[in-house]
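Possible race condition, two jobs.
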Amino acid sequence: MYKRILVAVERSDADRTIIDHVKPLAKMCGATLVLLHVADGWAARAYDELNLRESKEIREDREYLEGLRASLASEGFAVEARLAKGDPADEIVRAADAERADLVAMATHGHRLIKDIILGATVDKVRHLLKVPVLLLQSRK
């Protein structure tokens, strides 16, 4: 069934929602979990273009991602971690292709209308651009 599950994480409580849900699925399928976090602050978005040094945000993102990876590995999961920089939707789509993911899993906050306009609609963009199934869960409050 699934061999590589890309799990988009964002350093929020929503991460626990999606990780808790995909763990049994990964175990059942024997799938590798590929954790992806997209640093999307100003420094991250301009990192390559301006040849910047890693910002505090990027260092903290990397540490968070490595902590998640280590925790899941200690539970016996095959897990890899990737840190991308830029627009979250574009980077999720790019990573899904590059990692040959056959499922993308992510949590949504359930925003509607005004909040989507203000906060962006990453989930909608990802769903429309991906060629693989997308598992969406509304994060627990």
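Job #2 (started ~2 s after job #1):
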Amino acid sequence: MTDTDQAKRLPKSADEQIVRLRSQLTGNEECGTTHYNLAVALMGKQEYAEAEKVLHDAIECSPTLAEAYVLLGGICLQRNDLEGCYRYNQNATKARAGFAEGYGNMAFVLLQMVDGKDSKEDEEKVDKAIKNLKKAIIHNKNFVQAYTTLGNAYFMKGLVREGIEANLEAIKIAPDFPIAHNNLSVAYLEAGEVDKAITHCDKAEALGYKVPEQLKEELLPYRKA
């Protein structure tokens, strides 16, 4: 088959992709991967209710399809159902041992649940998030977002140096990951290392990250003319 023939057979829009996948399911209703791909296409069109139904079909056909649980968690997150999002990602880690993304997402949700009242419950959520993030990193040592989220969890516990180390690990993997540079700028300022704070602030901005104005104002007196 020539490249031209292949191009003619590729779906030209999300609607065509959906039609093609539904046609495939007509002949093979038990294919969990096809259900999953259909759900992804439906989510691309923001048809979340239908996508949710199809994802459940995907899991019924393929119980170990951890990615389907993660997408269901994402749908929950969109409607601010943090507990539902946590539950689905927990199911993802049960469906597939060592599924790093599920652990990372559970940690993210736990940190979102912290209400900032310095309660014992908040402390337990942060500690649990840290444990999940360490599991995520064990299963995927290049999981950049896990390192930055781990850094945030450490910052929430007042562990600035540990937070710095986590974000430094992130930029070892992805030197141009702007969130890590922004986090390092905040942390180095807190630690009194203003030159490093300025360097990482400028790097984050150069990479297109919208650095908070408050941070830039705090660094301004330390900038050399």
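Residues 198 and 223 are 8 Å apart (CA to CA).
Logs attached separately.
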